[in-house]
Design goal:
Elements lengths: L5 H12 L8 H12 L4 H11 L3 H10 L11 E6 L2 H5 L2 H12 L12 E6 L11 E3 L2 E3 L7 H11 L3
Parallel strand pairs: 1-2
Antiparallel strand pairs: 1-3, 3-4
Length: about 160
């Protein structure tokens, strides 16, 4: 196993112990780890595997299948632009392209300062207010390309707060 810090390893083992009586605890364990640390790197997957007896390959498959799990740390502000059909036909691709241009990152990447992560989402269930995006759960309706710079600036002002 790679280099997990002792306090992180202890925290992860505590999370795992919460579900010792569950028949299929993997999703709950991974969800709690994601909430606590913001991502689930391979060394954490190895520890979980060792603790609950599920092969690392299976854990990796779960982590990479579900979009709410991440192998890498995410930014403080996660911008999820919906590219579902309704949003796409109303200009969501141009919106995400503008975020990419302003932040100088592609979807799936995080800015060097760790402030923003840009994600392309398949559907956020907001078809009636397309194109829509969410930032840390806050939904922005009917976003136009012209709105993007203002949205980024709003979160830059908040910065590390």
């Amino acid at each position: 196993m790679a280099h997990l810090q002792a306090h992180a390893e202890k925290q992860i083992i505590e999370i795992i112990s919460r579900y010792k009586d569950e028949k299929t605890p993997l999703m709950m364990i991974l969800s709690d780890i994601q909430k606590e640390f913001g991502y689930i790197p391979l060394e954490v997957q190895e520890l979980v595997s060792e603790q609950i007896g599920v092969p690392v390959a299976e854990i990796y498959g779960v982590v990479t299948f579900y979009s709410f799990f991440s192998l890498n740390p995410k930014g403080k502000y996660v911008i999820g632009v919906c590219l579902g059909t309704a949003c796409y036909v109303k200009g969501a691709q141009q919106v995400i392209d503008k975020f990419s241009e302003i932040l100088n990152i592609k979807p799936g990447e995080t800015t060097e300062d760790g402030l923003f992560t840009l994600e392309a989402l398949r559907c956020i269930g907001a078809c009636g207010i397309a194109p829509a995006l969410s930032i840390n759960g806050k939904v922005y309706p009917k976003v136009a390309v012209a709105d993007v710079a203002k949205i980024v600036e709003e979160y830059r002002r908040l910065g590390g707060n």
